[in-house]
Design brief:
By secondary structure, the protein is of the alpha+beta class. It has two helices and five strands, in the order ααβββββ. It has a five-stranded mixed barrel with strand order 1-2-3-5-4.
Length: about 110
């Protein structure tokens, strides 16, 4: 625990090895639940706010309306736009998708 906090003054500390094991198991469960949640949207069309764009790779990153982190390729100028993205697959913590541009969005 952090010094000078109530937790630092408590007695009966959990053995660090047990604490690390519990943390590892919780992270594994969280990862499995996240993956299962993302899989529900495999092939689905979702709305994504294009937040970050890498001009070297033309890769955008953003979040769907379901708070799924998504990355997809697209042309410049879409940052800040809400785009329809078809989720193709998930990998680790982020889903990968492809956008369907409207004629007005193609540049």
């Amino acid at each position: 625990p952090r010094p000078h906090t109530r937790a630092a003054r408590l007695e009966g500390r959990v053995d660090p090895r047990i604490s690390r094991d519990r943390t590892r198991r919780l992270r594994k469960v969280a990862s499995e639940l996240r993956d299962r949640f993302h899989e529900r949207f495999q092939g689905a069309k979702v709305q994504v706010l294009a937040e970050d764009w890498n001009p070297e790779t033309s890769l955008y990153r953003g979040y769907s309306e379901h708070y799924i982190p998504v990355e997809f390729h697209g042309p410049p100028g879409l940052r800040g736009e809400i785009l329809q993205v078809t989720l193709k697959n998930t990998r680790e913590e982020r889903a990968v998708g492809s956008i369907e541009l409207q004629a007005s969005q193609k540049k």
